[in-house]
Amino acid sequence: MNSTYFTRRTIRKYSDRDIEAGLLEKILTAGSRTSTTGNMQVYSIIVTRDNMMKERLAPAHFNQPMVTAAPVVLTFCADFNRFNRWCRQREAEPGYDNFLSFMTAAIDALLVAQTVCNAAEEEGLGICYLGTATYNADKIIEVLEMPTGVVPVATVTVGWPAEIPDQVDRLPLEAVVHMERYRDYTPDMIDDIYRAKEARQDNLGFVAENSKKTLAQVFTDVRYKKADNEFFSGKYLEVLRSQGFMA
Amino acid sequence: MNSTYFTRRTIRKYSDRDIEAGLLEKILTAGSRTSTTGNMQVYSIIVTRDNMMKERLAPAHFNQPMVTAAPVVLTFCADFNRFNRWCRQREAEPGYDNFLSFMTAAIDALLVAQTVCNAAEEEGLGICYLGTATYNADKIIEVLEMPTGVVPVATVTVGWPAEIPDQVDRLPLEAVVHMERYRDYTPDMIDDIYRAKEARQDNLGFVAENSKKTLAQVFTDVRYKKADNEFFSGKYLEVLRSQGFMA
């Protein structure tokens, strides 16, 4: 197995070097061989290379600098529009205006996205996922002109690394893998699982900087707040409705 | 880049050979290095190896034979339970009982799932995704004993291939990739994109077998019917509610 899986890190700083069209086509082709439900391929990938388009996309991604600095920005979308058009053109009445169909299409898009990322990293490229694709889906839809049936689910910036950051921590494998049955976590298990993460210098720094008592509070009170999650939940559900997935 | 991305096919028939624990750990470890939102790792993987557990899972997957025939069945779950427990144990009040948090966790789980599949295939293993994970999430939750905060999003069977099926078709890459903006499809484009798929002998066979006029009708009237999609939409939304993601 190639070692990239184990040595990879998210890359947020890119060199000025462009990604050649042939290489981009290769990693997207790798992605296109990924399993999709019933081989329907109900996803689309929008490639942003143009600087003006990056500038227009940036606010939807809270102006994270990767959007304008990366040579390529990829927006992966759940997409039943193409399939629905085909059905209607072939005397078939599509029944894909519902939540399950959104999930089907979102799953297609996300699995393809990850193969594209694995393939890109194997070629030496660096990638960064932007969670903002679900937060501000409405703005992304507007900028990229997505019709009914199309909803962004992930945005990835891609470029040649201009940094080799430290590899971030992961929980022990046993913390995320369950054998045969989900075994719920006891307080002792939670302490064990999170001990190394909480002891890291960088994480201790975040707790201090934000004047919090625990690292968990940095997540709940600073990074991923209840009020924000609820606000963006409402927005994303409204997008599913307006894009035709909640009939 | 390793060639597996381009030569892969879904494998539904497996040899009797087991998957050694070390190899399984290796592909799961590869998966665990995948990007997750804020490095929260809000997913879990449930490994089914026990024959009795496979028998119990099978009905939830409409008794597709891969479930009992594969040496390993992996159920990938959106999981905020572990993270919520950690927060509560650290004087932090989690605000993750909403739809956006479900999407965040589902995205984590799906990206990890696809890295596990890519890594498995690179090692010569064969995989098959079962769409039924979202259809019958309620039954899977019951059999695998998932608590509140945990929802299955994908099931993958893994084993050593006992077949080399023909590689299935894919739409031309240009059909799923848009440059700069989503360019909606004209009727001529739809004809072009689907022409090769519709002309395939296997697909012509499905149309004839089902006494349909077009391949699209095989999808809308036989494989992915509106009534079924609506039924499973309701069920999955109810699962999100009962597992604590629609507060």
Notes on the structure:
The structure is a homodimer of 247-residue chains. By secondary structure, chain A is of the alpha+beta class. The first copy, chain A, has a domain at 4-165: NADH Oxidase. Chain A is built from 13 helices and five strands. The interface between A and B is large, with 116 and 116 residues.
Number of discrete helical segments of chain A = 13
Assembly status: homodimer
Total beta strand runs of chain A: 5
Tell me roughly what share of residues is in helical segments of chain A: 40-55%
CATH third-tier fold name of one domain in chain A? NADH Oxidase
Series of secondary-structure elements of chain A, N-terminal to C-terminal: HHEHHEHHEHHEHEHHHH
Q: Ranges of chain A with pLDDT <50 over ≥5 residues?
A: none
Interface with most residues: A-B, 116 and 116 residues
| N/C terminus separation of chain A | 45 Å
- Structural class per helix/strand content of chain A? alpha+beta
Adjacency order of strands in the biggest sheet of chain A: 1-2-4-3
Mean pLDDT over the residues of chain A: 97
Question: Helices, strands, pairings?
Answer:
The structure is a homodimer of 247-residue chains.
Chain A (H helix, E strand, L loop, with lengths): L3 H4 L13 H12 L10 E6 L2 H7 L8 H4 L2 E8 L1 H9 L9 H24 L3 E5 L1 H4 L1 H7 L6 E10 L13 H4 E3 L7 H13 L1 H9 L5 H9 L2 H17 L5
Antiparallel strand pairs in A: 1-2, 2-4, 3-4
Characteristics:
homodimer, 247 residues, NADH Oxidase, 4-stranded antiparallel beta sheet, 13 helices, 5 strands, 50% helix
